[in-house]
Amino acid sequence: MRNHEINICYKEYSPSELNAVDKNLIDLAIQAAKNAYAPYSHFRVGAAVLLDDGSIIKGSNQENAAYPSGLCAERVALFYANSEFPGKAVLAIAVVVVNPKGEILKENISPCGSCRQVMVETQMRFKKPIKILLASDKSVLVFDSVEDLLPLSFSQGDLLVDE
């Protein structure tokens, strides 16, 4: 037996320490979260995706009574970006949750496994790291790449066998 260890790296900033681009991305994610359709969970998530041409795409979670046929904010934004801007690489994504009053939560949240896998696929597609910002009212966790959120990620390349 051999023991192995996986380490992830991220930075933690106060919201006031962020640059203007990252602050704007988080503000747009907050706006998106306020548009979430979350009548069942009341968990209102917003995401804002920065593309390499400077465009920003917003998404919010969209629930459905036929759980789990809704979609998370991250996938809504990424799927829209990939559908409408197929040649544009994703440079960054900001994710936030707001309470029913529209206030950003005090705790940082993290994308679900499905969203992480979509982020990995998007990052692999464009061969550029995607910066991830997970914001709360007190701090922003910044990951330089999706691998930091999903080490040992699954890819179609893992299925290829030598002939």
What does this structure look like?
By secondary structure, the chain is α+β, with helices and mostly antiparallel strands. The protein has one domain: Cytidine Deaminase, domain 2 (3-Layer(aba) Sandwich). The protein is built from 3 helices and 6 strands. A 6-stranded mixed sheet has the order 1-6-5-4-2-3, sandwiched between helices. Helix 2 runs parallel beside helix 3. The longest helix has 15 residues. The two termini are 31 Å apart.
Q: TL;DR of this structure?
A:
The protein is an alpha+beta fold and 163 residues long.
Strand order of the largest sheet: 1-6-5-4-2-3
Oligomer: single chain
Mean pLDDT: 92
The main sheet comes to: 6 strands, mixed
Strands, total number: 6
Whole-number count of domains = 1
What CATH architecture would you give?
Answer: 3-Layer(aba) Sandwich
* Rg calc: 16 Å
Quickly count the helices.
3
Any idea of the CATH topology? Cytidine Deaminase, domain 2
Strand content: 15-25%
Secondary-structure-derived class: alpha+beta
Instruction: Quickly name the level 1 CATH class.
Output: Alpha Beta
Shape: globular
Helix-strand pattern: EHEEHEHEE
Main traits of this protein?
163 residues, alpha+beta, Cytidine Deaminase, domain 2, 6-stranded mixed sheet, 3 helices
Topology:
Elements: E1 11-13, H1 20-34, E2 44-51, E3 56-60, H2 73-84, E4 90-98, H3 113-126, E5 131-135, E6 140-143
Parallel strand pairs: 4-5
Antiparallel strand pairs: 1-6, 2-3, 2-4, 5-6
